[in-house]
Amino acid sequence: MQVRRLSLTNFRNYARLELDLPEGVILLHGDNAQGKTNLLEAIYFLATTRSPHASQDAQLINWDAMMTDEPVVVGRIVADIERPDNPCHLEMRLIVEDSGNWARNGQSAFRREALVNRRKVRLMDLLGHLRVVLFLPEDVDLVTGPPANRRRYLNVTLCQVDSDYCRDLSAYNKVLEQRNALLRRMAEGQTRNAADVLQILTEKLVEPGSRVIQRRARFIAEMGREAQEIHFQDLIGGKESLRLGYLPGWSANGRRAVDEQLADGEALQADPDIGAVAERFAAELAAAQPADLGRGSSSVGPHRDDWAVLVNGKDLGMFGSRGQVRTGVLALKLAEINWMKATTADIPILLLDEVIAELDLHRREALLAYITNQVRGKGMAQALLTTTDPGMFPDDFLSQATGLRIQAGRVIAGEP
């Protein structure tokens, strides 16, 4: 899989861009704040419908376009994708209505439109046509940050390859929202017919929630095997062991020791039988219901899931050095490529944003050697890297890469 052509309109600092992208390694270089990361963000956004940086769509629209008096401003990301099965044409539109009002007081109406082969589709149906693996310097927060970061990673990764998971997650979240609203009303004393409705919503929560749990447990097990091989053999030369531990959402709130949570997760990873998962989930919901009634929200379920990276049996987020954490996350991202390839029979695009500057010489050489070997062996069709200093890369790597200089929202071809 690769992006053959990328077109941007009113996206970040790109008023208009038409860019052909070759296969293999592409090195985007230039000073800070010129638009290197924005190119990666555009590809990632088209693949996942999410931005790794922006919390609101308004942040993605070109500032100059938003400052005009035009009644409607449209930001576009368009790409021609080459795939093993069939090529496709993808487009995401970010539509701003009444942009003049936004310029005056920061308020306006925003909506999205997704198109596949020039036909409008639901946002969910855009997922899976383009698959990417993104590595950012701040991805250390994936290990050291809050559980919400790790749940988001699970959802973004799985939704790129498994449409059933995405539908189950959406259904679960809708019922969860209804259940939480009812629990809040019951906590405030509104109890008429509430018990019967609560029972119905709880039962409706179990089926999609159990499938989400099952799929996450299987994913963590599969990714753990891939990450251990890359970490152990390619990145640290057999000096440390790495594994991933799943912490199911019924172990939340510190009610159980971490070792017990990991034991639960390992049982799920080893044999994620859907019947057993559903039975356990229903039992945990029933046990937590009195406490949920008191707090007015649901304390058990996939929305409370977590997982951990363990190096030599210790939680990397709690006990790892910065170098160990970065190497662990790097192993995870490279394992994600192999996992997607094994799951879909296709190879995702690798996006690396200023990663080299954060690695020591040994890990830098190991990463670049891994990428080079994967590209040579066609284990990876396309990789885009950004840097402010091409001199940090060895000459043999630069000789095989396509260099693109980014300057003030323009792309200039040429060797680094």
Strand order of the largest sheet: 2-1-4-5-6-7
Relative helix content: 40-55%
Number of strands: 15
Number of domains: 2
Mean pLDDT: 87
- Quickly count the helices: 14
- How many angstroms separate the termini? 25 Å
The CATH architecture designation of the largest domain is: 3-Layer(aba) Sandwich
Q: State the secondary-structure class.
A: alpha/beta
**What is the ordering of alpha helices and beta strands?**
EEEHHEEHEEHEHHHHEHHEEHHEHEHEE
Which blocks of ≥5 consecutive residues have pLDDT under 50? none
Short description:
By secondary structure, this protein is an alpha/beta fold. The chain has helices at 36-48, 63-66, 99-105, 123-126, 141-144, 147-161, 163-187, 194-235, 258-270, 274-295, 316-319, 322-344, 361-376, 395-400; strands spanning 2-11, 14-20, 24-29, 72-82, 88-97, 109-116, 119-121, 132-135, 242-247, 306-311, 314-315, 349-353, 382-387, 402-407, 410-413.
